[in-house]
Amino acid sequence: MKQYAYYPGCSLESLAKDYQLSTKEVARALDLELKEIEDWNCCGATAYFPVDEMLAYTLVARNLAIAEKTGLTDFVAPCSACFKNAYYTNAYLKKDPDLAEHINFALEEDHLHVDGKLNVRHLIEVILEDVGLEEIKTKAVHPLKGLRVAPYYGCQLLRPRKDHENVENPRFFEELLSAIGAEPLEYSSKARCCGASLIITNRRAALEMVRILLKDAIDHEADVIATTCPMCNVNLEVYQNQVNQEFGTQYSIPVMYFTQLMGMALNIPSRRLGITKEPVPKAQVPVPS
Amino acid sequence: MTDQFEPTVIGFTCNWCSYRAADTAGTARMKYAPNIRLIRLMCSGRLDPTFVFKAFADGADGVLISGCHPGDCHYVEQNFKALRRFILMKRVLVQMGVEPGRLKLLWASAAEGAMFAAEINKFVEEIRKLGPLNWGKDEGGRMKDEISSFITHPSSFGEEVPA
Amino acid sequence: MTERIGVYVCHCGTNIAGVVDVVEVSKWAGEKLAANGVVISRDYKFMCSSLGQELIQKDIQELGLTRVVVAACSPHLHEATFRNACKQAGLNPYLCELVSIREQDSWVHTDKVAATEKAKAIIAGGVARVAHHEALEPLRVPIHPDTLVVGGGIAGIQAALEVADAGFHVYLVEREPSIGGHMAQFDKTFPTLDCSACILTPKMVQVGSHPNITLLTWSEVTKVDGYVGNFVVTINKKARYIKTEDCTGCGICWEKCPWKVVDEVFEAGLGNRKAVYTPFPQAVPKYPVIDAPNCAYFLKGTCKACEKFCPTGAIDFNQKDETISVPVGNIILATGYDLFDAKRIPQYGYGRFDNVYTNLEFERLCNAAGPTSGNIVLRDGKTVPKTVGIVHCVGSRDENYNIYCSSICCMQSLKFAHLVHERTGAEVYNFYIDMRTPSKGYEEFYRRLLDEGTHFVRGKVAEISDFARLPEEEGKLIVQVEDTLIGKQRRIPVDMVILSAGMQPRHDAKEVGKLFGIACSADGWYIERHPKLDPVATMTEGVFIAGCVQGPKDIPASVAQGAGAAARVLGKIQQKEISLEPVRASVDEQKCSGCRICNDLCPFGAILFHEDRMVSEVNPALCQGCGTCVAACPAGAMSGTVFSNEQILSQIEGLLLLTVNGKKAEAVTA
After folding, report:
1. CB pairs B-C closer than 8 Å
2. pLDDT tens across B88-122, in order?
3. Buried b (16+ CB within 10 A) or exposed e, C604-626
4. How close C464 gets to chain A, by Cα (Å)?
5. ipTM, 2 decimals?
6. What domains, with CATH codes, occur in chain C?
7. Which domains does chain A show, CATH number per domain?
8. Do B26 and C648 touch (CB under 8 A)?
């Protein structure tokens, strides 16, 4: 069983407990051992970097340093924002000795040291590459036949992948959904930003971004939107009512983590996937028989 | 010129790719270390191992052999012959007590002026780190003389070397 | 020292003199190398000027020089110049050595002291080497008067006609069933808007009926042997399954053929053809080919409709590929370009959205002979677009794809804008990065388009999507672009998008280049001998290039290059024989032990072995002068002119005369 240094990130402890639950269930079912790193801290999210870049990198680097200490080679984050921050920080540490020196100077206070030698990966990447579509297909004993899923990549999952993935028109999420028997649909907005933390600072602008995503998915007759990030999930799900109020629309579409959909296909009871814990209407999820 | 060791490097280039790479670097005014002096051959396959040993015996600290990329040889596949001789020469150098890192093989196409210049810089630095070619006290000195003696040719530069 | 050597150091204006202390170098050579035979050393502003050359010639005559060393630019530039100067003064040209202190010294170094010392070392190497030079005569070989032209596009057609009209025989080889190339697919040509077929077809017919042209379509060159003047080319004539001597080109076979195939080549996937077909009605030659992988008879063993109906019995299902080989003296490569694959830019939606077209598709769409009879309609086959967006620089001038400018797309896009406007009255948006209209009549055409009311948006298109944000965007393709002239993001809904995909080298350009012994640049286009002064010749003697194989260009430029390459070939043919550098290997039979090591090393089969005398001999006509055998001969029996052991060993000594700091070199024996 391959082991991974697992970094859940703050959201999975609170807002996205369902993501945490389903991630752990799916990992177990797929024989992935996620070893949560000790005493981790916030990744800085989207907010800290514009405020103080150096401190933000140091914040992320602390997590990387703790992970490096475990001796594991792969650092896995289920949240796209955490993933992006860790990926970039790790890459810059390798590339920029000056930055590495500054960061290590700060980390010394904590008796930590970071080299930037980790392989930083998003959970979906690990599942696709280390488990593989064939294995998933075999284990998906309860394929989600006929379920029209809008694979929503968001932006932060893709940007760091620039060096090895087609960021403009990625296909891997679709492939994963097909492997669990669902019907991934083609729509233009799959890699657009969800508005992220703009929802706090410029509500209307962010709602407009959410509206675009909801409309595109609903226009393409999606049953459910699948996400890979707690931030995207929240924006798309929790703000549906506000979008409806603001724009006079009638949108109501369930939003689920890809791990929850995978868990359904792997025949894990929905309670253990946190499906009952969602804040917005679940009734519409047409759980296929 | 500072006090640091300035190695002398002889570079053998082929007429079609690597000498033209040097021309390309020149035309584009790309800068590289002045430690290298190039000799043009028609093909890297023309490289007689004698040339390399002669260069070392006469005071070169490093020797670069450079030809067309495999498959691009103007003479079909003669650069592969250079590759074979290169591997052999490295072994001989080790036996002679000379660091094999003083001999480098580089494939360069006519378009790769920038790469050629960068590789020269890299090689000169590597040789600088190795220091002057030291033939050793007794064994090496004898070896050097032997090399000089088996390379027989009418020398135009006898002992009367101008300063 | 018996040789009397003259050393000439060139300033090259400030190109050399700006970094190398040429006066000092010249003085040093005159004094310190006197013991090595240097009797005179001079420096001069421009050695390659006629005054500079006269300087050398005067010294040869007055001082009785027997050897000349010129320290100037790369021998690839001026070796011939100085050899010629020596020859005119009565000195054998091969007794002159040009050493480079420009490309290999002043241009690449900044440290003036080190560069000056290096120049001295380089000259010392040249002086040491030149003493061992031999007087040589260039080898003269006859030139076969026939010419091979590869590629039947407009550049190849022009080249073939020029050579054939001059009275020499041409083999024109084309991979497709008909000549015509990309130009045959176009509708109109910019900027005059004359019909492409109307100006091309007469030339194609001329080629087809020319007594001096052997037209080999549906054929490919598989092997090239020999060298300039004496190539032997092997050509594979693919089976046409048509007896061309009986076929009249009446067209009954393709009328009767029941199998439709999507025509990916000529119709760019927009239209169909039959399994037996000519790509277009004006095809030259008029004979069709049977597309065996798509023919019912070859797939299932029945049908033979074409054979049944052919009035002259010209169908032959048993035809096999045929290999011929022809001797030619010169070769012109005009194999053209491939269109950039627009699918590589997924955000432009080509392949995802029906109404995103490539430029080649659009050419077929607006061509009267094309699949829609020239009606500009959407993919549904009936709706006329009301707004059309034309995206320039697709895959060109883009670091992610090709960095170069494809040079024709601006004008082509303007032409499209005009045609759309004229035929549909639609609103047209051109999205450009920079407008590049540099040739005769091109800028005028651009102005005409401005007057016609085409919208020009300066900015690189970010994305084309079908996602409507606003009611007026519903059902449209939305072009997201930053209008950099007004500094605003814009979303422009259109019905149809045309992507002006750029040109790129043929997918097999590298392999084809290898076949003919020429190289591709980093971009993949074939490298010309000189980018400015010799754009149609290559580094391989006797192999010329014309048209887009050398780089993206429009029709007039391709025609000019085709004619230019033909003129170069005719020049060679008229010389009747060619001089080759006398760089050759030879065997000293006295020393040869008959070990035959050299025999297998030669890739040209130039070394024969005399069983009776047990010695090897080099055939100078086949020897290319690489020198591998010279390096390999264990007996030292093999020697090579111009690059002899003595020359190179001496050059090594000379080069190592001085260290980098200008001190006398000596090996460390501590």
Report:
1. 210
2. 999 999 988 889 999 999 999 888 899 999 999 99
3. bebbeeeeeeebbebebebbbbb
4. 9
5. 0.91
6. 5-136+647-662 (3.40.50), 147-238+324-336+506-577 (3.50.50.60), 252-309 (no CATH), 340-503 (3.50.50.60), 583-641 (3.30.70.20)
7. 2-123 (1.20.1050.140), 136-284 (3.40.50.11810)
8. no
